């Protein structure tokens, strides 16, 4: 019975898996933040590129 108790204690003391899970959660949070920022800035970026295209077309028109 002592060996099972010792194995259970060793399992709970091992923190290697916890670190991997924390890194996974941080990566997921960064991904969600990037997706949110892209959605918020998407319309502004599209407008800026459309303005550049319009300016280039009018500058090269004869």
Could you characterize the architecture of this molecule?
The protein has two helices and no strands. The longest helix is centred in the middle third of the chain and has 45 residues, at 16-60. Helix content is 92%, strand content 0%. The mean pLDDT is 85. The protein is rod-shaped, with a radius of gyration of 27 Å. It is mainly alpha-helical.
Brief descriptors of the model:
62 residues; mainly alpha
Task: Put the structure in a nutshell.
The chain has helices spanning 2-13, 16-60.
Strand content range:
under 5%
What characterizes the major β-sheet? Answer: none
* Portion in helices: over 70%
User: How many helical elements?
Assistant: 2
Class based on secondary structure composition and strand pairing: mainly alpha
The sequence of SSEs as H and E is: HH
- In one word, what is the shape? rod-shaped
- Strand segment count: 0
Radius of gyration: 27 Å
User: End-to-end distance, in Å?
Assistant: 92 Å
Which residues form runs of ≥5 with pLDDT under 50? none
What integer is the average pLDDT? 85
């Amino acid at each position: 019975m002592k060996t099972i108790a010792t194995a259970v204690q060793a399992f709970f003391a091992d923190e290697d898996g916890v670190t991997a899970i924390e890194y996974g959660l941080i990566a997921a949070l960064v991904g969600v933040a990037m997706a949110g920022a892209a959605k918020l800035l998407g319309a502004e970026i599209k407008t800026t590129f459309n303005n550049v295209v319009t300016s280039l077309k009018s500058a090269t028109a004869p």
